[in-house]
Amino acid sequence: MTLYLGVDGGQSSTTALIADETGGVLGRGADGPCNHVRSAEEGREKFIRVIGGCVRAAALEAGLGDEIPAFRAACLGFSGGPEDKGAILREMLRVEELLVTTDAAIALAGACGGGAGIITIAGTGHISMGRGRNGRVARAGGWGYLFGDEGGGFWIAREAVRAAMRVHERWGVSTSLHGRLLQSTGFADANAMMHAMYTAEWPRKRLAALSRLVDEEAEGGDAEARDILERGASELITISAIVRGNLFAGNEAARLSPIGSVWKCRILRESFVERWTRANPLNSFAPPAMGPAAGALLEAFRIAGQAVTLHNLPESEK
């Protein structure tokens, strides 16, 4: 039996899928985050332990024993980039063809079922990526919070804090968003809140979580909060349209799938969909076809030169 491996190594969890040559998924293994490995020896050890544990668990469920089997091809996608992981994985895995790539690349493969399409990820940050019908890949955004990420959770929260600072300095319009931010963070005024957010007590993810308050206040009718979300939708349209223009002709249909927590914001999502479909009637907006671990598995088959339809997928990957 010829085996293929796909792994999604995310910031919150890691998932491994093993399939046979027909595309049938035989086993799944899951664990917590596998961590960045370049910063410290304990990061490397955790990476090896989590990846090895997930693959062994998938092999055990597949009836292949509790050791890591040999693979015809494997694809592993990671948040934080693949550069520091390839050498370690070659030591861990017996594999003929190995692709170590980004989490966005496997999310694209899963969302589009290995075919043509676009994803726009809006979580803490943002990125848009697509694959054309000729197999060419393009991306826009993903520059990080210092130089981009407009429309992502961190950007939304930062815009809310900026609005609160304008009210504090008496050159902004006071709305319910200002008071909600102070109430939720426990600061006496926006100036104290802003300065605290420059400290280690407020890492990016903690600040990005405040985007939920912007959504709630916008739903309650706050004009400032709604404006932030609509501007966020406009920024996400920009990077999505760039990818579309680089990969698809105007008379070609282009399917876009949203990924990430920011898309739960109804106002932002509906504003995006209205602009996306108005820009071109051949544009569509649909949920991902499959999850990122399934996308990694499809990429493993692709680098081996095999075209398959995955079946027996676990519910978590559908």
Brief sketch in words of this structure:
The protein is an alpha/beta fold and 318 residues long.
CATH architecture of the largest domain, by name, is: 2-Layer Sandwich
CATH class placement of the largest domain = Alpha Beta
Percent in helix:
40-55%
Gross geometry: globular
Supply Rg.
21 Å
Could you tell me the strand content as a percent range? 15-25%
Tell me the number of helical segments per DSSP (H or I, 4 or more residues long): 11
Quickly give the structural class.
Answer: alpha/beta
CATH topology of the largest domain, by name, is Nucleotidyltransferase, domain 5
Oligomer: single chain
- Please give the domain count: 2
Look at the structure and give the mean pLDDT. 93
Largest sheet report:
5 strands, mixed
Run of helices and strands: EEEHEHEHEEEHHHHHHEHEH
Structure description:
With 318 residues, the chain is α/β, with parallel strands linked by helices. The protein has two domains: 3-113 and 291-317, 2-Layer Sandwich (Nucleotidyltransferase, domain 5); 115-288, ATPase, nucleotide binding domain (Nucleotidyltransferase, domain 5). 42% of the residues lie in helices and 20% in strands. It is built from eleven helices and ten strands. The chain has helices at residues 41-61, 86-92, 103-111, 153-168, 176-185, 190-196, 204-208, 211-219, 223-247, 266-279, 292-303; strands spanning 3-9, 14-20, 25-31, 70-78, 94-102, 117-122, 126-131, 137-141, 254-259, 283-285. The strands form two sheets. It has a five-stranded mixed beta sheet. Helix 10 (266-279) links the parallel strand 9 and strand 10. Helix 4 crosses helix 5 (176-185), helix 4 (153-168) runs antiparallel to helix 9 and helix 5 runs antiparallel to helix 8 (211-219). The longest helix has 25 residues, at 223-247. The chain is globular, with a radius of gyration of 21 Å. The protein starts with a strand and ends in a 15-residue tail after the last helix.
